[in-house]
Amino acid sequence: MTTSPLLEVRGLRAGYGASIVLEDLGFRMGVEAVGIVGRNGMGKSTLCDALVGFLPPSGGRVLLRGNRIDGRSPERIARSGIAYVPQGRRLFLSLTVEEHLAMLSRRGRRWTPSAVYALFPRLAERKRQRGGNLSGGEQQMLAVGRALLLDADLIVMDEPSEGLAPAIVDVLVDTVHHLVAEGVAVLVVEQNLRAAVRMAPRQLVMVSGRIEAEFAGDELLDRPDLQHRYLGVGTATAPSDPDGAGTTDA
Questions:
Q1: Nearest to 87 by CA among 36, 27, 25
Q2: Do 210 and 23 meet the contact criterion of CB atoms below 8 Å apart?
Q3: Which CATH number fits domain 7-231: 3.40.710.10, 3.40.50.300, 3.90.25.10, 1.10.760.10?
Q4: Handedness of CA 30, 216, 178, 240 (dihedral sign)
Q5: Which terminus has fewer CB within 10 Å in the chain: N or C?
């Protein structure tokens, strides 16, 4: 991680009405892939909403390249350099793949529909299909491709592997690695620990609305006691399940 982080979150506080979900949350990241994991109800999706402007924070700061973006509208945050791949994808089911990408296509941008098709050849084959007729994996590719067209410095992905077949998760993992190599940072909020670790070597653990711990992904996978303590999966003494270890109820 660089001394001048791309994203810095300081003392973030946010919630819904009188219910405070995030309290004194902080972390930093550079141009890298970072995972956010934790038990269900710890505030991971609330953090996504606060970062991209859907939920205005009630305290703290969010800085992108040293500039404050907390309190801005989602549109301004997107223009500042953060794109969002939401849980559930939120596509327009009646629009085709082409139409989804055309909405955000702009001249002079690094990412174009052609570049998205090159990254996801399957979308090129399905570009005249409506969003509602795509498989779950194809929909996720389209959601990622749509985010890329914003030419963001950071992409926030909320539960990107949810409901996907292993082969499509492999594509998603390769995509995250490709983006980081191309200079795009990725923040991954994941339900499946194994998928999260494959995507991101740094894992931040959320507990009760705060970042409670940080681990190298491999360490978290190899330590059932840590999984039990922070994620509520497995037991403190049993070895990790080679097929499903690390799947949280987040």
A1: 36
A2: yes
A3: 3.40.50.300
A4: negative
A5: N
